[in-house]
Amino acid sequence: MWTKPISSIPRLLEFIAFYVGRRKTAYGYSEAELGDAMLPSPLRDLYAFAGKWPRRSGRLLACQNRLLPLEDVRISNGRFAFIEENQWCWCLGTDVRGRNPAVYYSDDVETVTWQETGIGLIECVRTFVMVELMFASDIWISDAALPATTSLLTACRDSSSTWRVLGRNLRAYDPNHHWSFFLMNDTSIVAHEQYDGGDFVYGSANNRHGIRTLKQLASQFDLEIFPRVH
Questions:
Q1: CA 213/CA 196 separation, integer angstroms
Q2: In terms of Cα–Cα distance, which of 126, 33, 48 is closest to 83?
Q3: Per its UniProt entry, which superkingdom is the organism in (predicted)?
């Protein structure tokens, strides 16, 4: 049973294994591979724990957007580029040292020009990983096609025997793009996205109980069921 908010990188890493399954040593970069890489501590911990974690035909942390493989990371204009958008429209960077350095955004992955986001690396990593876990799940559903008066979030909460808050109003790079994450029945991630005047809710699951619950909700609201991105 999971009972704690994901308020730190160590708890985030613990949650990855809780939600996806048992971790193997090969799923992370070894100390020898990390070597003297100039990584701020939150990223070093993430690469060491889950930087290679496989998911079907790809990597766990490269389903929606992607954590760059360690061998592809680069220093651009003095900052460490570590996440790229899935169609190479933008990338995120941070300073090479520190416990919680600032995150920067560039809308060009080739000619990088960094813009300040006002968001710290720990919050960015927490948000990014939770979104990747959701889209890497065996199935996921969304209320994007529902009328605004219908709330999948309420239906998820009402249908659950346990409902845990994992994190509220988190941001990855856009200060106006917020995510809140919840754990339903200890099996399903429920995410509430608020962006550009819209509210969107997603549910995702990997095991039989969670998948069954999401299929029931999809049937109730006439929602499409999406397979994992990979």
A1: 30
A2: 126
A3: Bacteria
